[in-house]
Amino acid sequence: MAVQVYGCNHIVIEVTDAKKAVKFYSDVFGLKMLRGGEGAAWCKLGEHQFMAIFEVETLQPDRVKHFGLMVRDQKQIDEVRRKLTKKYKLKLHPNFRCDFRDPWGNRIQVGQSVPVEWAPASTTILLD
After folding, report:
1. Which regions of the chain does DSSP assign to beta strands (E)?
2. pLDDT in tens, the chain (128 residues)
3. CA dihedral angle for residue 124, residue 84, residue 86, residue 91, rounded to 10 degrees
């Protein structure tokens, strides 16, 4: 029997200040904090997903490693973009709707939710 993957369970990011990271992700994305688990903090990402925040002394630069978050619609992408650029003074990566590095260098892409069943089987869905 072939294994069927139903989705992603969690992602992990590294930061130098977990308390500031919790405030940042709570503010920008409205993420709820969870209790327990490995790492300094856990944020609920969806119905069955979470993000673990690990505090480290020294950050290691990433080249292409990143993760994507889905929001409901373009209006929410615009709100995220506004907060990132105006409040946090972060730069958005060119050629993407909402692609940025958080204050600790973690690369995040934000796209709008598109049900996969809406696309023909031969279609590649790019949410950026």
Report:
1. 10-15, 32-34, 41-44, 50-55, 66-71, 99-101, 107-112
2. 775 666 778 899 999 999 999 999 999 999 998 876 667 889 998 888 899 999 999 998 777 889 989 888 889 999 999 999 999 999 999 888 899 999 999 999 998 876 655 555 554 455 54
3. -70
Q: How many CB atoms lie within 10 A of CB 92?
A: 16
Residue 77: closest CA among 56, 92, 58, 57: 92
Question: 10-57+64-118 falls under which CATH superfamily?
Answer: 2,3-Dihydroxybiphenyl 1,2-Dioxygenase, domain 1 (3.10.180.10)
Q: Are 122 and 83 in contact (CB under 8 A)?
A: no
Per-domain boundaries in the chain: 10-57+64-118
